[in-house]
Amino acid sequence: METVRVDASKSYDILIGSGILGEVGQYARNICGGATAAVITDDIVERLYYLNVESSLINAGYRVIKFVMPNGESSKNAANYLSILDFLAESGFTRKDVVVALGGGVVGDIAGFAAATYMRGTRFIQIPTTLLAAVDSSVGGKTAIDLESGKNLAGAFFQPDFVLCDHKTLYTLDEDVFRAGCAEIIKYGIIRDKGLFELLKLPMDDKIEEIITRCVAIKRDIVNEDECDGGIRQILNFGHTAGHAIELLSRYKTPHGYAVAEGMALIARASARMGFCTADCRDEIIGMLKRYALPTETGFSSEEIYSAALSDKKSSGDKITLIIPREIGKCELRETKLGELKEIIALGLERGE
Ligand SMILES: NC(=O)c1ccc[n+]([C@@H]2O[C@H](COP(=O)([O-])OP(=O)(O)OC[C@H]3O[C@@H](n4cnc5c(N)ncnc54)[C@H](O)[C@@H]3O)[C@@H](O)[C@H]2O)c1
Ligand SMILES: [Zn+2]
Q1: In the 8-state DSSP scheme, what is residue 316?
Q2: What is the pLDDT at residue 95?
Q3: Least C-beta-crowded within 10 Å: which of 6, 103, 119, 166?
């Protein structure tokens, strides 16, 4: 088992191992205390993993209650958020008790936001069960729900008491959900860790624990430098300006990881054309995405992507911060005028490497 220590506004451990789900009760008892554990999960994850988690918590002396929502992004809404708060209140849950998020990023985000706001903050445990949740959404303390007018528009920064990642749970993921997580792993290699990028050229099977640990440590380091997302944390958005635009244009039919893969390929092509990185670097990025059967082309036009990118909440005034690859393992933030952004998107879509 690996442990990654996070020293943010709160210090806590991220525990990564195989078959450690049944140990959650003991860790919760030692780290969080409390009398009641409220497990928030979705219907698919409940069927697969709830009983194991429940018996572990009961054995550690908890009264266990559960809230199950339908799986999928559409559950990350205000109605479910309020239902969770009511459910906690009606169950006599106090701020000394523990909210346990068991599931992917959807469950982690909504349960985390409920934990952050119920009685101004409860104890909180993340058990990520998707690759994306393991390497990305369970790290860094961002929690959120979607509003009618857009994704992640209401939320809070709220760090958990600990994260327990049992990577054995990843074996039951659908292939496309697993691959979507791989896009974020490839991103970490490109922005910060050439060694990780090289590791991804080998079969992943027996290296999954090392890979998750490296990704989590990279995100931890970046978040440590910039917990509230004012500067360097934006580097985690490599491929995301175009990626978010593509997600939006597809009305969220294109999974996040796939849209980010298309976004990374786009910015890699544009960067090579503009001389920010070499053609080799671009080919390495695109080759790696293809190796993981991720898409590297989008059907949307540059005008469509540009307009959708402008509606994204990350643009401020007449500039946007783009993440530009310089070489594998090294990216930089680049303040970009909107006119130039348009040009970059067009360059990134031009056919022929
Ligand atoms: N907070 C953050 O920093 C952050 C970062 C990135 C993404 N996110 C959010 O994460 C969400 C996406 O997360 P996701 O990709 O994990 O999606 P998800 O939570 O919807 O999970 C994808 C699917 O996999 C199923 N599933 C989960 N674990 C499983 C398992 N072990 N075996 C079989 N099936 C399983 C789920 O039921 C669901 O159908 C988005 O809402 C996004 O906004 C948040
Ligand atoms: Zn992402």
Answers
A1: B
A2: 96
A3: 119
